[in-house]
Amino acid sequence: MTERAVATYTLAPPASATAPTGSAAEANATPVAKDDADVAFDNAACIGCGACVAACPNASAMLFTAAKLSHLAALPQGQPERERRTLSMVAAQDSLGFGGCTNIGECAAVCPKEIPMESIARMNRELLRALLKRGRGKGR
Predict the structure, then answer these.
(1) Is residue 117 part of a domain?
(2) The whole model's pTM is what?
């Protein structure tokens, strides 16, 4: 019979934890404009089924990615990692070889949750914002 030593480990936050943490704030303590809430809820409805990618002649996943980014960018809770999230999700989409959007609209036409094409435009604005902010940060 062999003895097994018990290893002790020091718990540390994961290296990927970049946002401040703490107890959750009361949901009603953070006001959200109705238009922003509508955008967030409409985009949060995405179920990730892939119908948009299958219908797109370019095999673009931009509607799916845009729905996830638009949902989080519209709410105060999504602000701490807004730029990093946008850059990493778009980079992941590109690295997986999905095509680019050419505004044909087949994705929105087949989406069972009716995610609008406007979400792609919102994602492009978020990407531009993140790139500009990152560019300003490098000069410092």
Answers:
(1) yes
(2) 0.76
